[in-house]
Amino acid sequence: xxxxxxxxxxxxxxxxxxCESRGVEALARTITEQLNSxxxxxxxxxxxxxxxxxxxxxxxxxRCVADPFVVSRSWQQMRPQESPAELTARSEHLLADADxxxxxxxxxxxxxxxxxxxxxxxxxxxxxxDIPTAMIGQSVGPFDDPADAEAWLMVAARxxxxxxxxxxxHRYLVGKLGLPEHRVQxxxxxxxxxxxxxxxxTSAVLRPLRLTPEDQYICLVPSQGITRYSALEEKQxxxxxxxxxxxxxxxxxxxxxxxxxxxxxxxxxDDRILAARIAEAAGTPQVMxxxxxxxxxxxxxxLSRAELVISERLHAAIGALSGGVSAIAIGHSHKFNGVLxxxxxxxxDVNDIHADVRAFAQDNAVIDRIVRDTDATVLRTTxxxxxxxxxxxxxxxxxxxxxxxAG
Length: 407
Description:
Number of helices: 15
Number of strands: 13
Shape: globular
Radius of gyration: 21 Å
Largest sheet: 7 strands, parallel
Order of helices and strands: EHEHEHEHEHEHEHEHEHEHEHEHEHHH
Distance between the termini: 14 Å
């Protein structure tokens, strides 16, 4: 049983980029709601887009402020301009009030994006002041630069709680980086606990597409940004997704709903652009892009009604899986096959639930296999058996966090 606390705690959440990505929103919202589910805490989210995220996370009561530890040039127009002295003063003020610093972010700590070490700064500063720290639901590595790996290990060794969301990362940390096994726990992504919207709200979201609660459909979640990390041309990638969408319509006899899970102010990462491009190229009303400025929970509602979800965005796949719906991934890193393999368990072949985006775009046989061989019924049955374990792991993280705060 979770210990009762007599006082409200101040918690900082780091590892957030922007809720423009509904996957990031799913993480921030879930963590904040879980922290406030038993007695409440004062939660401050460090982000690159504070005004936008304040609106997105308003139902949680979280305070969103511009991250003083990491200042992203690509979002600089969406945060206040501050001098180094002003950033330092704000970071000191935030830490002075903090009882715990929690790092999320899913897969920030890898060489894929080049941002791992900067996102350690808040944790490092907290540990220097003996403030408890936790890293939860992480995918970690691989690191190309030994200095990045060493920097991460120095912080991880001092964390009061460290959990990873899949076994691939667990094996990498223990087997490759030499982290003592007792220092890291296997858990799940916090977004498995994201609440969905009501059936009425989901019906309203689908109404512009003329889909009723009785209609069957497949969701395809394209990623505008995936070509930046996979050495693919955008044209080649879009053409492959269009072939997949039209093949699903012709073979599965269902409409395909394109779900733009990331509404980014930066065009290179805005899924709405790619979804519109696919819908136009498909040339059939059976391939349609979901419109509207929707929340992560809105998208989970739509995904949870689908017969099958095929996703290039990991947190869209998690939205489907956590709603009990069969999902497979087209990905560019180990985080995709790691999370899906962990969710379905050892009885499902990883090749049945994950395709590398490079093979997908270059080999028509991969598209044929996805369309013809994916058995959504078998995957759904396996998922229903595994889902209680996966969600229990995620809840365990917050039980341990509450014990940290109580202590």
